[in-house]
């Protein structure tokens, strides 16, 4: 398996902290997350990303995830290696996931509960809403067909989102400091689901921001002025957590950045 990785780093200065991106289903890092990486690098953060198997420039059947657990493991292994580099040992480590990537970010936290310093969740895909779920009989038939022909992308498999943290007991295990941002007019992932995660998580440091008139893709695809407003809140949240932690690498940024990409197996 060949996995594509990329990074965006601030120019001519120390990285104030690390941000690890988790993209959504059917998306990838170097295009749909490029704006995010560039903005965060301009704010002084070292930003790192990975394309899941079957996504972007990584190998695998397009859009097909054989095991959701493997996706989490791939991200965990790569992001842990970066975090444990000698120069990064004292830097804060944040996760940022959009839509399905929000699930990946939460599962990364659950995999290593004390490793990450915080998470930004953009319209996280916590569960499939009941009013858009097919009837139980249809789900049952499609599930059996997907076991026979697993590459048919008809419904999420058992390894996918519902198995991730639909169980309220699992949501209550979420203890990481987090910021949820969600568009009020999102018809892909309803804001009520994000609110459920916010209310049930045991995190002492948690924030839920709802944006009137905005849709699902807050960081890629929204109107430019709306994206600016969302990132103003994201950057402020990150800045406050880094400063609060007393990170020795913290500096107010010069607004310039440089991107780099790499390919790893």
List descriptors.
8 strands, 265 residues, eight-stranded mixed sheet, disordered C terminus
Q: Specify the overall morphology.
A: globular
Mean pLDDT: 81
* Biggest beta-sheet profile: 8 strands, mixed
Number of helices: 8
Task: Work out the strand percent.
Answer: 15-25%
Helix content: 25-40%
Please give the alpha-carbon distance between the first and last residues: 6 Å
Q: Which strands sit side by side, in order, in the main sheet?
A: 7-6-5-4-2-3-1-8
Q: Name the structural class.
A: alpha/beta
- List low-confidence stretches: 152-166, 250-265
> What letter string, H or E per element, gives the SSE order?
EEHEHEHEHHHEHEHE
User: How many E-type strands?
Assistant: 8
C-alpha-based Rg, rounded? 18 Å
Describe this structure in words.
With 265 residues, the chain is α/β, with parallel strands linked by helices. The chain is built from 8 helices and 8 strands. An 8-stranded mixed sheet has the order 7-6-5-4-2-3-1-8, sandwiched between helices. α2 packs across α3 (100-111).
How would you summarize what this structure contains?
The chain is 34% helix and 18% strand. It is an alpha/beta fold and 265 residues long. An eight-stranded mixed sheet has the order 7-6-5-4-2-3-1-8, with helices on both faces.
Layout of helices and strands:
Elements: E1 3-10, E2 18-22, H1 34-42, E3 46-50, H2 68-83, E4 93-98, H3 100-111, E5 118-122, H4 136-148, H5 161-165, H6 168-171, E6 178-183, H7 191-200, E7 206-211, H8 224-245, E8 257-264
Parallel strand pairs: 2-3, 2-4, 4-5, 5-6, 6-7
Antiparallel strand pairs: 1-3, 1-8
Helix pairs in contact: 2-3
């Amino acid at each position: 398996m060949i996995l594509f990785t990329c990074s965006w780093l601030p120019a001519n200065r120390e990285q104030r902290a690390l941000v690890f991106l988790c993209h959504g289903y059917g998306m990838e890092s170097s295009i749909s997350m490029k704006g995010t990486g560039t903005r965060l690098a301009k704010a002084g953060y070292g930003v790192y990303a990975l394309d899941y198997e079957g996504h972007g420039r990584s190998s695998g059947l397009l859009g097909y995830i054989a095991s959701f657990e493997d996706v989490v493991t791939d991200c965990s292994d790569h992001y842990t290696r970066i975090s444990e580099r000698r120069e990064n040992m004292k830097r804060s480590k944040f996760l940022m996931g959009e839509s399905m990537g929000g699930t990946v970010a939460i599962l990364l936290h659950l995999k290593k509960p004390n490793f990450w310093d915080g998470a930004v969740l953009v319209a996280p895909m916590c569960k499939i809403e009941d009013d858009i779920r097919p009837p139980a009989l249809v789900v049952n038939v499609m599930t059996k067909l997907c076991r026979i022909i697993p590459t048919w992308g008809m419904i999420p498999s058992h390894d996918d989102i519902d198995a991730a943290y639909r169980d309220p007991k699992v949501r209550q295990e979420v203890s990481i400091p987090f910021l949820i941002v969600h568009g009020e007019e999102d018809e892909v992932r309803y804001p009520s689901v994000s609110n459920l995660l916010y209310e049930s998580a045991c995190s002492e440091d948690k924030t839920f921001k709802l944006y009137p008139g905005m849709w699902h893709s807050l960081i890629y695809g929204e109107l430019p002025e709306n994206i600016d407003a969302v990132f103003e809140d994201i950057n402020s949240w990150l800045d406050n957590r880094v400063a609060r932690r007393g990170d020795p690498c913290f500096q107010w940024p010069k607004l310039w950045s440089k991107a780099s990409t790499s390919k790893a197996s």
